[in-house]
């Protein structure tokens, strides 16, 4: 398969990043190479360093691990997505803080509705599960309990939902995305068949909707889902969904074709992708500040570009290996 000039430019741009993690993941996931010397410097990268800054003795970054977006929960997700090594004591401490927090609140995390499926914030537990598995805690008994709780809360359609007013017929794509990722990571790390089956059912929910279309008429469910942002945090969009499917070996499913086409259409003329808005505010903001600059809205975004290339590679539409 010939590599077009635009793709080559995007790859070279990623390889020139000042973030060692982005360089390393591009070599590993896009080019199929060894990540080489960049592996040793991932912890020194500006984004990873910022995510670990201000860490307290308990491994966290304040009283509330879920504080948007500076709490330990959100930092851990970003750390594992930047391939921060779980062997590092600081990364291990963040993971332990998150698992302790999520485990203590597990019994209060779901609401049983009479004659209906359980309501739960599947994205919270799911993202914590996925991040803790990536951080080396898959064998912890608390992780197993977390996975089994998520499985027990899954709705008949394959998803999860926190809305007490929901009819029980259709779950939330937002809540389902994180839950599916967490269960997939746990199934890989622990060989847990029920977790794998639950993640597959969630993937089927996305695929039967072609990731963004209504079943009854094929129309777009929500236009915002077609405009990826990074980080997505708990929000659903087609790139986040395609990335999950690629990790599950399902990106080449014919029902993902529409979403892949939409992703391709959003590619910039030079081969990169931009973020369509941002869920975060710069450091120092009073509302939802971030400790990391993930690139402003409208500019070419390294993580959006990397994830898009990962997805297209998994779907067989780009081959640089």
Description:
The chain has 321 residues and is mostly helical. The chain has a domain at 45-208. Helix content is 47%, strand content 1%. It has 13 helices and 2 strands; from the N terminus they run ααααααββααααααα. The chain has helices at residues 5-15, 20-30, 38-41, 46-52, 72-81, 89-104, 122-134, 141-152, 173-190, 193-208, 238-247, 257-265, 302-314; strands at 110-111, 119-120. A two-stranded antiparallel sheet has the order 1-2. A hairpin with a 7-residue loop joins β1 and β2 (119-120). α7 packs antiparallel against α8 and α7 packs parallel to α9 (173-190). The longest helix is centred in the middle third of the chain and has 18 residues, at 173-190. The radius of gyration is 19 Å and the shape is globular.
Topology readout:
Blueprint: H1 5-15, H2 20-30, H3 38-41, H4 46-52, H5 72-81, H6 89-104, E1 110-111, E2 119-120, H7 122-134, H8 141-152, H9 173-190, H10 193-208, H11 238-247, H12 257-265, H13 302-314
Antiparallel strand pairs: 1-2
